[in-house]
Amino acid sequence: MDLAENGTLADAIGKNKLTDWPMRRRIGHEIARGLEYIHSCKIIHRDLKPENVLLTLHWQVKLCDFGLARTHSMNLSTTGDFKGTARWSAPEIFRSPPQYTTKSDVYSLGMILWAMAANRKQPFGEELNFFELMDLIKTGTQEEMPEGVPVEFRECTEKCWDPDYNKRPEASDVILLMGQELTEAKSREEEEDAKAQFLSFSFSQNFQALNLADDEPGETDGAPPPNGQEHIPPHEEEELSRLLRLADDGNTAAQVELGRIYEEGTMVEQSFDKAFEWYRKAAEGESVEGQHRLGTMYQYGRGVQQDLVAAVSWYRRAAKQDYRESQTSFGAMYFDERCDCSDLTLEEVALWLGKAAEQGDPEAHVYLGTIYERQQNQDEAMAWFLKAADLGHARAQYLLGRHYQGAGNHQDHAVAIDWYQKAASQDYVEAQTTLGVTYFNGHGVPRDNTEAAFWLRKAATRGDVRAAAYLQSMHAQGQGVDQRDVSSTATYRKASERGNA
Q: Where are the TPR repeats (predicted)?
C-alpha cells in the first residue's frame, strides 16, 4: 500500500510546508510527469487538484482519486454533466456540452502551480457559489500572481491556464517548461516503472488507480471469436492478464478494478457474479473502496441476493474510514422503506451525512435537507438544499423551486422559476416538466405556450410521460404545438396507459 506520510499537496500548502522554489518546481514537474504517463495511456484525470496529489515521506508525488477518469476514446464531449471540482476546472468544461481533453488536466495543473506560488489552498473566494465560479472561469478570469515568483515558474503557470485550450502545452511540454528534462530509461520496463511511480495504486480511501490501455479497438485477424465470445483486443487481454496477476497476489486495488470491469462489462462480458467476488476479496483485504462497492452490490442485489442489512454493514465499515460515498449512502438506506435495519438510527445517519457534507458532498446536503423537511423544519431544510444547489446539484435546485412555488413557507414564483431553470438546464427531467406545466398554466408567470412546449419537449424526449401527455393535449387544442413536437405515438400511448393523458 502506498503511504503518503506528508499528506496531500493541499495539506502541505495549508501548513506552509513548501519552503522554497526548487521544491515547488520539483512537485510541479512530478505532477506533469504523472499526467504525461496517464495521457499516454489514453486517460484523462478530470479532477486534478491539490487534494488529489499525495506526498510521500521524501516528498515524492503520487496522483490519486481516478474516480472521474475516462479514456480518450469515450465521447467526452457529450458526457452531459459537469464532473470534477469547479475551482480547478478549465473553461471548456463549463460549455454545453462539456469538452474534456488532456489540455483540461493541464489547465488544472496550472491552477495547482498558482496555488503553490500563492501558498493558498484554493483559488477564488470561498463565498462564491457554483454559478458565480462558473461565470468567472468561463470568461477566463484568473487569480493575481503574487510578487516574487520566478519568471520561468510564472510563464509556465500562465501557459497552462490559458483560457484557449489550443494554446495550452501538453503535459510533456510542461516537463520541459519546468526546466527538468526526463532522462532516458535504460529499458522500456524501467521507463514504464519510472512513470508509474507517480500514480497511487492504493491509499486509505477512494484513490482508485487507473493504468488502462487505450479503449480503441485493436486489430483482428478476422477469425470468429471462440465459443461465441466477444473478441478481446490484444492490448486489453494483456491488461486483464496484468490485473489478474496483481489481484491473485492480493493487490486490492487490482481486485477493485477487476470488479469494476466485470460490473460495467468493459473489456469482458458483464458478470455481476464475478464483480461481486472481486469486490468481496478486496473488501476482506481491507480495501475501503472494495468495502463500499461490496455494499452497493448487496444494496442492489447484483451478483448476490439483495441484503440491505449487509449493505449497511459494509457501508459502515467504509464510512468509519472516512469514505465519503459510503457516508452518503446512509441517506439512501435510511429512506429505503425496505431497509429493516434495527441498528440504523437517525442519529447515526445524521452523523455520517454530516461528515460527508463537511467534505462537500452535495448529495449528503440533500439527504440532510430531506430529513429536516420531514421533521417540518422548513428553514433548516432550505439551508441544506441551498448548500447543495450552490454546488450545482440539480435535484436540490428543483426542490428549492418547488419550495418557492408554494410547497414551503416562502412563496416567490420568480425565485421558483429561476431554480427550476437551473435544474432544467442540467437536464433534470422533473424540473423540465414542471417548468413546461407552469408556463402552460400560467402559474405565477405569464402564460407562454412557446416556452411551455420547449421544456415539455425536452422532458418528453427523455421519456417523461406526463410531459408527452401535455404536448399531445396542446397539439389537440391547437395551442401552437406541431405534431412533430409530440415525442412519439408510442410515448403518448404509454402516457395514456398510465392515466396521464
A: 362-395
Q: Dump the DSSP string for 102-152.
A: HHHHHHHHHHHHHHHHHT-SSSS-TT--HHHHHHHHHTT--PPPPTT--HH
Amino acid at 131: F
What gap in Å lies between CA 68 and CA 89, rounded to an integer?
A: 13
Rounded distance between C-alpha atoms, residue 134 and residue 89, angstroms: 9
Distance of CA 132 to the CA centre of its chain: 20
- Distance, in Å, from the CA atom of 234 to the CA atom of 239, rounded to the nearest integer, reads 9
Distance from chain centroid for Cα 439 = 33
Confidence class for position 234, pLDDT limits 50, 70, 90: low
b/e map 427-445, b = 16+ CB within 10 Å: ebbbbbbbbbbbbbeeeee
**Higher confidence at residue 201 or residue 36?**
36
Is the pLDDT at 83 greater than 50, yes or no?
no
% of residues, the chain, pLDDT over 70 = 76
CA 2/CA 204 separation, integer angstroms? 9
Q: Could you tell me which of 229, 317, 321, 327 has the C-alpha nearest to residue 280?
A: 317
Contact 290, 277 (CB under 8 A): no
The residue with greater pLDDT, 66 or 451, is 451
Alpha-carbon distance values, 330 to 184, 385, 386, 431 (Å): 50, 18, 21, 26
- Other beta carbons within 10 angstroms of residue 358's beta carbon come to 11
For residue range 275-333, list pLDDT tens digits in order: 999 999 999 999 999 999 999 999 999 999 999 999 999 999 999 998 888 999 998 88
Q: Could you give the dihedral angle defined by the CA atoms of residues 10, 14, 19 and 20, in that order, rounded to the nearest 10 degrees?
A: 60
Counts of helices then strands in the chain (DSSP H, E): 22, 4
Give the pLDDT confidence score for residue 74 in this predicted structure. 40
Q: Which residues neighbour 132 within 8 Å (Cβ) at sequence distance 6 or greater?
A: none
Read off the amino acid at residue 314.
W
**Stretch 136-142: mean pLDDT, rounded?**
84
